[in-house]
Write a structure and sequence with these properties.
single chain; alpha/beta; 7-stranded parallel beta sheet; 7-stranded mixed beta sheet; 48 strands
Length: 1056
């Protein structure tokens, strides 16, 4: 190990050997202490995951006996040209104002009308007249308007099925187009599908299965009709010849009702790479052929077989794949024991901030810009500034940008500039969407006719499961590329590629990552989970670019970071932080240790503190309990009481019934042998602690008073003591408060308390509070419930150890380097770059904050700008954004609207909000299906978002009914004249994406839940481009919520 540290670059040059050894030992000591903490943290994570089993039900999704409804002939659209006028003279585009009216004169009478962007682009306008226009004026310029319809005199052919002022839709059976005025159109928007479906259902026992694709299912092959006629239209039903592969696709279903606390579905683990899927009953192993995580669809085959098949039983299980955590342990261990070259800059992050030195940037110039070509465009200066800093950085460069600020555009420019300089790039991100978005932009054609890939000789390789990446970039996926180019060897391709891309998890499938020589010891013993290797990691890449780095922890960042020499971090610390599974935090708290690795809180102390906390809640003058537990736990309860908790129970009397040992008596705590006690003596106590192995004997001897209920005992309900207790409590009811509900039946109370003991523990109580404390770090709200001081042992100080866990579990690498990872009141020994962030002077050389947003209408951006970005002066509106966000949907008077709903909330579900949301969605669909999508897009995009998976489930059920896509999970497509794509997600799943219109369901109206997280709220309200519609209790969020951010949101949103 010393050899590697001696050869690391030092701040001072020409050191003597003795001085070099001394400095190297200091660096090694720091690295060993810091990275040992990370190793211990990750080993505890591995411990929590190694035997974690996830179960799922499943269902078939394809039916063999299906047919598709096809039209015999074609539908054509003919524009009604009467009233249509052509703008014949040129108009300067820079002078136009679409808010200005067109004034025209007919028979000396002035009339006015607005011209839309679409009309201007076509240079035609439809007017409410058929007369000759004598003169016209628009935006101060004279306009010449010539009628269109003089050339259209022939009679229209075919059956008219629809007609309005602008167009006529015609059906022609032979499908022949009479002339160029006839434009073929989609027939689905103009047929009475319900009536046709009724005919098929009534006469042929068919059922509509997929309304968008006109798929019907039938009970028997013989039932499928060949031809159907309806109101002059002729159709045929063509049987779908399903292949064997399609027949065996299954859809996974969650075992239990959605948990109130889970942010993501546990089904996500089934789609990890290299997982072993087993039959839940017969334990048959299956291999994954393909799958779609978004729709929870899998295609499986039995291990050792070639053909797909259905699982044998109705239950599937997996053990969670720990490969990602193992690679993180490997990276930490390698950095600690075999640091080379540029890794010195990674170790510097953990050294004394005031003593460490950071190199100055170089001064390379950029002579030509490839994408950031318009220097006068708002925000271009900051974008260019960052590219310069990234090219010249000696170590890190940091790009922060609010939603829609053009971070991806900057990444594209940076990639092109680096490739031009002969650099190799590793591109990572937290989501497939983020990575594929960059690749899609690289391969799309530029105005020059060439793509950026062609223009700059970029050879990209996409690492990851082909089923989980965008179809548009699938040719660049490693396996697909090799199939399409059989003459290219994998090793040669990876060496030649100058841009390798993958998610922070998916990149772990890179052959070089997977084939490293080393292993993690998984055998029981002192060195379990230690990593062993004698091979350092040699960086293959000049730069690592991490997009959405605000969602990446240091340990996640480190795995790809060791394969690069410099590191570019892109993200926004005001959006979502890394997601850390609660089980990982719980495992680390329950195994919490000091800096030497000694466990601080043994199991019996954890149980003692947890029981005392529950007693504090449930014991009162009406409610007394008996708790059978281990002897060691009783001793720890006694220690905790007299180490500082006795004041909490100063009016309560504890009795401890023991099998041996000395009797003990204090004011609040009496300890005696079982044989030395009487029922009357015990009756005066509030809490009786009894060794578990003595309970049966005590019940037989009728020593336990009927005034007390017995916890954690399966035998109690059928005991004589329970019988007499029931009689006693009929006149002396117990009292227990749980949330907003009051309980008086002692048997029901015992069941609830036992359930709490079964489902939760000491570490769970601290974990969720630590998590909430971190989520609210940027909030003005204070929540007393998240204080976990009551759970800290009084007999030992573990605050510093808990701080270490929090600082490894929650912050992102981006937040760490910008503002540090200290959480309110945390105890960090030394101020380091990772704990405090870069010094201001070092940060200025490395960081740029983008100021302008290109996504949202100004009505939508005002709240997040004032609430989350005012300090940095960011999220300013592009000067042209309001004009770019013009559209023809006039239902709402403002672009940020609050629909006031007071619905009943049950298990994080609000049916009334769902009903109202679907109503608004239907109205928008009626508009969008027949209206040209904006921004030159080929489809409309709608996002239905909510903060809770329970509400997501309700919305899914309604969207399935609305779209007739009964097996869709997240994607619901509606096809009219124009395609409308509806996405359903929780807010957390939708970061990095956007939609034309967002419908957001708040759900809660009596409490904030985790809506009060500023980062989560920021993501929720910044996804919409044209329109944001919020559904929730306006009164609650405006005046009753304790979150100032939620109060402000309601204040700045127009009530519908």
């Amino acid at each position: 190990m010393q050899h590697y540290y001696l050869n690391l670059q030092k701040d001072k040059k020409d050191l003597s050997f003795e001085t070099n050894v001394k400095i190297s030992d200091g660096i090694r000591y720091t690295a060993n202490e810091v990275f040992s903490n990370f190793e211990n943290y990750l080993k505890n994570v591995l411990r929590s995951l190694e035997n974690k089993e996830i179960r799922a039900k499943w269902r078939k999704i394809n039916s063999k006996n299906q047919a598709k409804l096809l039209l015999e002939g074609k539908f054509f659209e003919v524009e009604n040209k009467v009233g249509l006028y052509k703008i014949t003279n040129p108009i300067n585009e820079f002078d136009i104002d679409f808010e200005a009216s067109l004034y025209y004169w007919v028979n000396n009478e002035r009339k006015e009308q607005k011209i839309s962007r679409q009309e201007f682009d076509r240079r035609v306008v439809r007017l409410d007249t058929k007369e000759k226009i004598s003169k016209a004026n628009w935006c101060g310029d004279s306009v010449s308007l010539q009628p269109f319809w003089n050339t259209t005199t022939e009679r229209l052919k075919g059956i008219s099925v629809y007609k309005n002022v602008e167009k006529t839709i015609l059906y022609i059976e032979d499908g022949q187009k009479p002339n160029n005025d006839y434009k073929e159109c989609n027939f689905k928007s103009y047929i009475d599908l319900k009536s046709i479906s009724d005919i098929i259902t009534k006469d042929y026992k068919g059922k509509i299965e997929d309304e968008n694709n006109l798929i019907f299912s039938f009970l028997e092959d013989g039932n499928i009709p060949t031809n159907i006629s309806f109101e002059g239209l002729k159709f045929r039903l063509e049987k779908i010849n399903n292949s064997k592969v399609e027949d065996f696709h299954i859809q996974l279903l969650e075992m239990n009702e959605t948990s109130n606390e889970d942010i993501f579905s546990p089904l996500r683990f089934f789609f990890d790479d290299d997982v072993i899927i087993k039959d839940g009953k017969d334990r048959i192993e299956y291999q994954k052929i393909e799958g779609s995580e978004e729709e929870c669809i899998l295609l499986l085959k039995k291990k050792g077989e070639n053909s797909p098949s259905f699982p044998v039983s109705d239950l599937l299980t997996i053990v969670v794949n720990t490969y990602q955590i193992e690679r993180q342990i490997e990276a930490i261990s390698t950095l600690k024991t075999m640091p080379i070259g540029d890794y010195r800059n990674l170790i510097k992050l953990f050294e004394d901030k005031d003593k460490v030195g950071w190199d100055f940037p170089t001064n390379q110039q950029i002579n030509e810009w490839n994408i950031l070509t318009d220097e006068n465009r708002d925000g271009c200066f900051e974008q260019r500034d960052f590219v310069r800093k990234a090219i010249n950085t000696p170590d890190f460069a940091i790009l922060e940008g609010p939603p829609g600020s053009g971070k991806t555009t900057v990444i594209l420019e940076l990639i092109c500039q680096l490739i031009q300089r002969g650099k190799r790039i590793l591109l990572c991100g937290s989501t497939h969407v983020a990575i594929d978005n960059v690749l899609e932009r690289l391969i799309e054609k530029q105005p020059s006719g060439k793509s950026l890939i062609e223009q700059f000789a970029i050879l990209p390789v996409r690492i990851g499961d082909a089923q989980r990446i965008s179809e548009d970039v699938s040719n660049y996926q490693l396996d697909n590329f090799l199939v399409n180019n059989p003459d290219v060897e994998q090793k040669l391709l990876l060496e030649m590629s100058n841009l390798v891309c993958g998610t922070t998890i998916g990149i772990l499938q890179h052959p070089k990552f997977k084939n490293r020589k080393g292993y993690i010891n998984k055998k029981e013993g002192r060195d379990k989970y230690n990593y062993y290797s004698n091979e350092p990691i040699i960086p293959d890449f000049d730069y690592l670019i991490i997009d959405e780095s605000s969602k990446t922890t240091f340990q996640e960042f480190l795995v790809p970071a060791l394969y690069a020499k410099k590191w570019i971090l892109v993200g926004d610390i005001m959006q979502l932080s890394p997601f850390t599974d609660r089980d990982e935090i719980v495992s680390n708290i329950s195994h919490i240790s000091d800096r030497e690795g000694k466990r601080l809180v043994p199991n019996e102390l954890q149980q003692a503190i947890f029981y005392l906390h529950q007693f504090k809640r449930c014991v009162n003058k009406n409610s007394k309990y008996i708790l059978p537990i281990d002897r060691k736990v009783i001793k720890k309860i006694q220690e905790e009481l007299y180490a500082g908790r006795i004041d909490v129970f100063k009016d309560k009397l504890f009795y401890a019934i023991m099998s041996n040992g000395e009797d003990f008596s204090e004011e609040n705590f009496i300890q005696k042998h079982l044989h030395d006690l009487t029922k009357l003596e015990l009756a005066v106590s509030d809490i009786i602690l009894i060794e578990k192995n003595l309970l049966e004997e005590a019940l037989k001897k009728h020593l336990l008073p009927e005034t007390h209920a017995i916890l954690l005992s399966k035998e109690w309900n059928s005991s004589q003591q329970a019988f007499t207790h029931k009689s006693y409590t009929s006149n002396h009811p117990f009292l227990y408060q749980d949330k907003d509900k009051e309980y008086t039946d002692s048997f029901e109370i015992v069941e609830k308390i036992n359930q709490t003991f079964k489902e939760k523990g000491w570490a769970d109580e601290i974990a969720w509070r630590m998590d909430r404390e971190y989520q609210l770090r940027a909030s003005e709200k204070t929540d007393k419930k998240i204080n976990y001081e009551d759970f800290l042992p009084r007999s030992i100080d573990i605050k510093e150890a808990l701080d270490r866990v929090a600082c490894m579990a929650f912050p992102s690498i981006l937040e760490s380097l910008v503002q540090g990872i200290k959480i309110k009141g945390k105890h960090i020994r030394t101020d380091t770059t990772i704990s405090e962030g870069f010094k201001p002077s070092n940060l200025r050389d490395r960081r740029v904050q983008l100021k302008y947003q290109h996504r949202m209408h100004p009505d939508i951006s005002i709240f997040p700008r004032e609430q989350f970005y005012s300090k940095e002066g960011a999220l300013q509106d592009l000067s042209s954004i309001e004009q770019k966000r013009q559209w023809g949907y006039g239902k709402y008077k403002r672009r940020s609207i609050w629909v006031d709903i007071e619905g009943k909330v049950n298990k994080n579900r609000n049916e009334k909000e769902v009903s109202e949301l679907i109503k608004h969605l239907k109205e928008f669909l009626d508009f969008a299906k027949n209206m040209n999508p904006p921004d030159g897009s080929t489809e409309w995009t709608i996002a239905c978002l909510t903060f809770y998976r329970g509400q997501e489930t309700l919305l899914r059920e309604e969207l399935r009914k609305l779209t007739k896509k009964y097996k869709s999970m997240s994607n619901f497509c509606v096809q009219g004249k124009y395609k409308v794509n509806i996405k359903l997600h929780t807010v957390d799943k939708f970061q990095g994406q956007e939609a034309d219109i967002v419908f957001l369901s708040m759900v809660q109206n009596r409490r904030d839940g985790f809506l009060d997280s500023p980062n989560r709220l920021n993501v929720a309200v910044t996804r919409a481009k044209f329109q944001l519609v919020i559904f929730g209790s306006y009164k609650y969020f405006r005046t009753e919520s304790r979150s100032k951010e939620l109060n402000k949101l309601a204040e700045l949103t127009t009530k519908y």
